[in-house]
Amino acid sequence: MDLLRSHLHKVRIPELTDRIHKDECCVSFDTPRSEGGLYVDMTSFLGFGREHVAWNYEKTGNPVYLHIVQRRKPEPDEADRPLKKPTLLAIGVEGGFSDQEPECDEVFEIIILPDFFPLPFPSVDLPEKVRVAVDKVIHAESADRKQQLASWVADKKTVSAYAMDLHQLDNGVTVPPTGWKCSKCDKIENLWLNLTDGMILCGRRLWDGSGGNNHAIEHYEQTKYPLAVKLGTITADLEAADVFSYPEDDSVEDPLLAQHLSHFGIDFSSLQKTEMTTAERELDHNTNFDWNRIQESGKDAEPLYGPGYTGLVNLGNSCYMASVMQVMFSTHPFISRYFEKQSLKAAFATSPADPTLDLNMQMTKLAHGMLSGKYSVPNKEGQEGIRPRMFKTVIAAKHPEFSSMRQQDALDFFLHLIDQVDQANPGNHELNPFTGFKFIIEERVQCPSGKVSYNKRSDYILSLSIPLHEATNKEQLKVFHEKKAAMDLDGKEVSNEEIVRPRVPLEACLASFSGAEEVPDFYSTALNSKTTAIKTAGFKTFPDYLVLQMRKFVMEAGWVPKKLDVYIDVPDMIDISHMRSKGVQLGEELLPEGASGDNKAEPAYPVASEDIVSQLASMGFNYLHCQKAAISTSNTGVEEAMNWLLSHMDDPDIDDPISKDSWAAEHTVDDASVQTLVSFGFQEDVARKALISSGGNIERATDWIFSNPEASSSVPVDSSTSNVEADEAHIPDGSGRYKLMGFVSHMGTSTHCGHYVAHVLKDGRWAIFNDNKVAASVDLPKDMGYLYFFQRI
Questions:
Q1: Segments in 425-515 forming alpha helices (H)
Q2: How do residues 231-250 score in pLDDT, each as one tens digit?
Q3: What is the dihedral of CA 185, 189, 195, 196, to 10 degrees?
Q4: CA-CA distance, 517 to 533, in Å (whole number)?
Q5: CA-CA distance, 174 to 475, in Å (whole number)?
Q6: Is the confidence at residue 533, as pLDDT, over 50?
């Protein structure tokens, strides 16, 4: 006890602001249930496994630790467990998903390093400071638990600004308890009651063409009556009713809903629930996966264990992250950087005071967790896998979407990962594992004068459109559509087994990228006027790893965005050597530099194209949002505005009015972001324009530049490529022959909902990584990928 008293000055009583890591080691995936238990530093409150706690003592000199050992209690039979369906998109709260770990018996003791001298706890002989400190650690919410709860609990509805003073018309309207129908069409579902005039109208048309006909929102645009309640969600529990505010463009709370309903003769106490609320529809997507071929469900697959076959537990819609990281840690650059050449001890020694917030440490921890085989051992359910909570916390820091529990686009996460790893290794190409993924695209633009310009840009992915007209099974498709049309007339549905999907060769997708493309409104410095130019593109360099993204979302008739239900025939090996660009050719004349006059006028006040805005609004989007989308894409077209709108719907300022002052303010962008884009090889003026159009978001600005080649295509080759050329020495190049080594597949109507799965070629065979389930692939769904990863041969 004297030894402990001599170290009392090192013992801290935790405060409310302290992050207590008592669930998992900060440098490994050891937990209190692991052999040896977990040691919590009573100074920093960081947790360490038995193998790693001595490293912390060497680094900090902190000697006093709370040793936690958990042993699982025998579990009750499955039949004895009550099952309760969640009603809230949350975890660990009433009505949410159950997050209960297996029940455990816990044993505590005080350990003093370096000799691991044990003292019992609880004990009246311990100094009071130690008893209080340890008691607070034991009863406190852990850092992981706090982060988990904060991420899961959905935003609480706010009281509508229009509810308390809502004007209701005395027009004699009485709403019956049943038999509702849209006043402007035959829709009998997804109906909304306007709380001002009692009109019953259908809701918005959904992305897949289902839902309503937009009559409710059109009524608001005509009348400006602000609030509507969804019929079928009104019960005696009025808090569960779905009230929507059109000017606030969100689900809201109406404290006077009972009074507002009574105005139209509605006795809410007698109504039964017949429709799902918006939140429940989201919940339904999270509790019901479409188990299909992508997951190889129903196949008798051999579970795989050992190094490189460690599953990642789904933390709540984190499959987008897990699928990408499984592929990344199957590539040589990532294995070398964070596993073979980086020990856990070295990463911890160079980490800051809190290693849980250091990307290098958490990447190394994840690499060793996935590749060591330590956590990939069989149990009765297959394998437990590891929970990458600390990695998710640090990689998603300051990113509101990735730090949430909402589903995300795997491509967006891949780009975000590139950005974060690049920031963690500034200017150090040898330490950056993404160096091997980088390549240079050279674009050639020829105007009617015959003169040309060349522009280089660097990238990490090649985004490919899918030319459906190149499908190889056109005859089968024709027969299928004729059969489907006949069955539709008879009121019959086509079964999944009967559906015929287009099959498009990957070669056709690659050809669509390198083929000639018209650039309208191209300003030719040779003609001193706008004209239509022809653009072609090719690879200036071939990367070690080539990442292809398949654009599976298109605009259907009526400008409704829809996911393509299509198969891509992807060979095991590809040769894209013919796609290498040739540069300036003998006899070619470059376009002259600059435009005549070279005047730089002040930016004019933006005006949205009414044609673009009206078409977007007809799909059910907010009118103001449509105006912003048109302005932010320079009125390029409906598809461009739609893409901007879909990626900016959660922006915090999306509802701010458009004004000259706000628009001018938006033209002031962060210089650091500009320089980041410049380091990617883009011109400074183009980078600024892209950031303005993308709200300062670097990833969206990059997408904007790729989607608007005319923004930089009229700039001479010398000035437009200087930054790329400065970086070119560090960009790999070699053969254009590749083999497929992995792909990420997606199921669902949108990249922001559904489920992601990874397939990786390891040890000469394909393996499926479906969260913490890892098995040998039986029926490889190679033709259903969203992201394809190729390795140079």
A1: 474-489, 506-514
A2: 988 877 787 788 999 998 88
A3: 0
A4: 8
A5: 55
A6: yes
Nearest CA-CA partner of 143 in 73, 44, 276 = 44
Provide the Cα torsion 519, 521, 522, 523; round to 10°.
180
Q: Are 337 and 360 in contact (CB under 8 A)?
A: no
Catalytic residue set: 319, 755
State the Cα–Cα distance between residues 117 and 522, nearest whole angstrom: 77
In sequence order, which residues have a C-beta less than 8 Å from that of residue 349 and are 6 or more positions away? 55, 59
Query: How far apart (Å, rounded) are the C-alpha atoms in residues 638 and 618?
Result: 12
Q: Look at residue 626 and give its three-state secondary structure.
A: helix
What tokens were used for 221? 């645009």
Q: What's the pTM value of the predicted model, to 2 decimals?
A: 0.69
Dist CA 392 CA 402 (whole Å): 8
Question: Omega into 122 within 30° of 0, i.e. cis?
Answer: yes
Mapped onto helix, strand or coil, the DSSP state of residue 320 is helix
Give the chain's radius of gyration (CA, Å).
30
Between 378 and 88, whose confidence is greater? 378
* Choice among 100-109, 554-563, 569-578, 585-594 with the minimum mean pLDDT: 554-563
Tell me what pLDDT residue 646 has. Answer: 78
Note the pLDDT tens digit of each residue in 8-62: 999 999 998 899 999 999 999 999 999 999 999 999 999 999 999 999 999 999 9
Distance separating alpha carbons of residues 17 and 231, to the nearest angstrom: 45
DSSP 461: -
Question: Which phi and psi angles does 666 have, rounded to 5°?
Answer: -65, -20
Position 271 scores a pLDDT of: 65
What number of other Cβ atoms are within 10 A of residue 636's Cβ? 20
Pair of tokens at residue 754: 């559904």
Question: Within 13 Å, how many C-alpha atoms sit on residue 778's CB side?
Answer: 13
Per-residue pLDDT band for 259 (boundaries 50, 70, 90) equals very high
How big is the CA angle at 686 (ends 527 and 446), to the nearest 5 degrees?
35
* Cα–Cα dist 78/479, whole Å: 49
Token digits of residue 94: 């009433």
431/677 Cα distance (integer angstroms)? 20
Written as six digits, the tokens of 683 are 């011109």
Contact status, residue 359 vs residue 424, Cβ threshold 8 Å:
yes
Distance CA 671, CA 688 (A): 9
What whole-number distance in Å separates Cα of residue 294 and Cα of residue 298? Answer: 11
Cβ atoms within 10 Å, residue 456:
23
Q: Rounded to an integer, what distance in angstroms lies between the CA atom of residue 206 and that of residue 278?
A: 12
**DSSP H/E element including 517:** strand 517-524
How far apart (Å, rounded) are the C-alpha atoms in residues 484 and 492? 9
Q: Is 725:735 a contact under the CB 8 Å cutoff?
A: no
For residue 541, is it left (φ>0), alpha (ψ between -120 and 50) or beta?
beta
* Percentage of the residues of the chain whose pLDDT score is greater than 90: 53
Give the helix/strand (H/E) hosting 429: none
- Give percent helix, percent strand, percent coil of the chain, each to the nearest 5: 35, 20, 45
Q: State the number of CA atoms in the 13 A half-sphere of 154 facing the CB.
A: 17
Using DSSP, state whether 657 is helix, strand or coil.
Answer: coil
Q: pLDDT category, 599, cuts 50, 70, 90?
A: very low
Q: Which residues pair with 245 in a beta bridge?
A: 227, 250
> Which residue type occupies 491?
G
Token pair in block for residue 461: 């992915």
